[in-house]
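Hey Z.,

So I finally got round to the zinc ion thing we talked about over coffee. Here's the setup:
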Amino acid sequence: MKTCFRCGRDLPGSEFTQSYPKTCRDCLRVGRHVSKAKRRGMVANLTIEEWLETLEMFGYCCAYCGGSYRDLDHFVPIHYGGGTAFGNCLPACRPCNMAKANINPMIGFPTNGLKPPVIGGRRGNPVNRAIAEGKIKGGER
Ligand SMILES: [Zn+2]
Ligand SMILES: [Zn+2]
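And the result:
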């Protein structure tokens, strides 16, 4: 077990990379996506605490299929104005993230066999909003 110096969690060694041995993968992920959104002039204020809360919400599983989480997915892609912000960032497995790619779910969902995300959490979550507005159908677990 090792302690991440950013979030303070005690995690197995597999949650750290050789290039950044003191910062866990989730902290790196958040940092990377925040700077990416910032560079493109989008909202970029996701904190590691908010990301960990999101992961809790989804039980550390892919929001789309319940499989093992590996990527941070922007529900509304940065390309379509989605920011790296609480509610727009969901855990995804590699295949679902690839299947979703740059598709904007607010325009059309589901797409290429991708299941809609299973949602919980706060109001204001864009996924919940899309479901409420009938743009997508919420999944069931
Ligand atoms: Zn960390
Ligand atoms: Zn998945």
